[in-house]
Amino acid sequence: MSKVLIIGAGGVGTVVAHKAAQNSSVFSEIMLASRTKAKCDAIAGAIGGGRVRTAQVDADNVEELVRLIRSFGPDLVINVALPYQDLTIMDACLECGVHYLDTANYEPRDEAKFEYKWQWAYQDRFRAAGLTAILGCGFDPGVTSVFTAYAAKHYFDEMHYLDIVDCNAGNHGMAFATNFNPEINIREVTQKGKFWEDGQWHMTEPHEVHKPLNYPGIGPKESYLIYHEELESLVKNFPTLRRARFWMTFGQEYLTHLRVIQNIGMARIDPIMYNGVEIVPIQFLKAVLPDPKELGENYTGQTSIGCRIRGMKDGKERTYYIYNNCDHEAAFRETGTQAVSYTTGVPAAVGAMMFLTGKWTGAGVKNVEEFDPDPFLAELAVQGLPWHEVVDGDLELD
Ligand code: NDP
Q1: Can you list the alpha helix ranges (DSSP code H) found in the chain?
Q2: What is the DSSP letter of 290?
Q3: Is there a smaller number of Cβ atoms within 10 Å at the N or the C end of the chain?
Q4: How much is the pTM?
Q5: Atom number, ligand 1, closest to the C-alpha of residue 103
Q6: Is residue 344 in contact with ligand 1, taking CB distance under 6 Å?
Q7: 5 C-alpha to ligand 1 centroid (Å)
Q8: 293 Cβ closer than 6 Å to some ligand 1 atom
Q9: What confidence tier does 19 reach under pLDDT thresholds 50, 70, 90?
């Protein structure tokens, strides 16, 4: 029986609140807090039964966070606000002696550069306080990291090549929309590509490297090499990896819009003056783009995300592919959000369950691949994200 405070009432927060409410034997009391309380109230109302309490909080403000955490007294704070708030929420957790979990690593507002260094720097403080901070517990990072740990535990003596493949073959019927927070999403996908090979990072131009890959139940989709945050912790935690890459599918229409957005300066993250008011173009763009949370209703098709791994077992080369497919319509029926929010929120709730039921333990700042993958993957399937394996199949990637 545990109390959790969920911070952030977007698409992902909606799913975490639903899943926590469905699992009352673990989550006995739930509070959902965000910048706009009305959004929390709407989610709590949709869940019903008085299961979810709500509050207003500015998560950029440590004092406000501390006041809220002290008044509610949670065992764990689940941070599904934006990556900008990671450090303030970790500070508040340290001050109040509460454990922490998130789904995206810290990123400074004024630089589109996500790295674990800021959060890993909290290691000694969390250890000394006897507190746990679980980093990156969404799908990617999150399930992809646990998939990799599961492969290392059960299928390989040594893993050599890792390719994380992320396909969204869904159709929301709009010319352009992002599947999670537009500001964070556009900052991520317009960066240079980056992958790990032979002990160092290699850079590519944005979307320069691409090839069609076949996704189970979906078929071939053009997949682009991009940088993604779990690569940083996975190459550190699995040092036998000679190469680690991340591939994501994009449609031509999406890429064309993205190119135009960049070319006309709407992806800029530096402030400009407009009619005497300072605005940040990408934040203004977010305000006029569709809210990812509202995409669910007409969203059809599936996502397919997994890990393709090559390495050695008992002296022989082996390949292994582990993946989940998630249906946008089924996700919407259950939680009122599309599959991208669903595949992020369910693992966050499952990670919280692992911690609160004592299956994941240990003080300090930890990426999810550092915990036992078995109970997490067993529960993930129960909570709506079943996964599948292919041993010694064609990985399509040399
Ligand atoms: P949304 O933009 O839909 O929701 C973010 C929520 O955080 C909103 O409710 C917003 O409030 C709230 N918020 C923002 N700033 C503050 C603040 N200062 N104080 C309090 N609340 C604040 O995002 P998503 O739900 O799509 O994504 C949530 C997180 O999940 C992001 O960090 C994203 O990077 C991560 N993510 C991780 C994935 C993974 O697989 N690991 C995949 C997809 C997303 P308001 O409504 O008032 O703006």
Answers
A1: 11-22, 37-47, 62-72, 86-96, 117-120, 123-129, 143-154, 182-189, 230-237, 252-263, 281-288, 328-335, 339-356, 373-382
A2: P
A3: C
A4: 0.96
A5: 41
A6: yes
A7: 15
A8: yes
A9: very high
pLDDT at 81: 98
pLDDT digits 0-9 by tens, 208-260: 999 999 999 999 999 999 999 999 999 999 999 999 999 999 999 999 999 99
3-state secondary structure of 148: helix
Q: What are phi and psi of 326, to 5 degrees?
A: -130, 135
| CA dihedral of residues 111, 112, 116, 118 (deg, nearest 10) | 20
pLDDT exceeds cutoff 80 at 20: yes
Classify residue 192 by its DSSP letter.
P
CA distances from residue 282 to 5, 11, 108, 109, 274 in whole angstroms, order as listed: 29, 19, 15, 11, 13
33 CB near ligand 1 (under 6 Å): no
Catalogue all structural domains in the chain, each as residue range(s) with its CATH number: 2-135 (3.40.50.720), 143-335+382-391 (3.30.360.10)
Pocket test for ligand 1, best of 7, 15, 79, 103 (most atoms within 8 A of CB): 103
Instruction: Please choose from 5, 18, 35, 286 the residue to mutate so as to test ligand 1's pocket, defined by most ligand atoms within 8 A of CB.
Output: 35
* pLDDT tens digits, 151-176: 999 999 999 999 999 999 999 999 99
Contact between 285 and 270 (Cβ < 8 Å): no
Reported as a single tens digit per residue, the pLDDT across 294-343 is 888 899 999 999 999 999 999 999 999 999 999 999 999 999 999 999 99
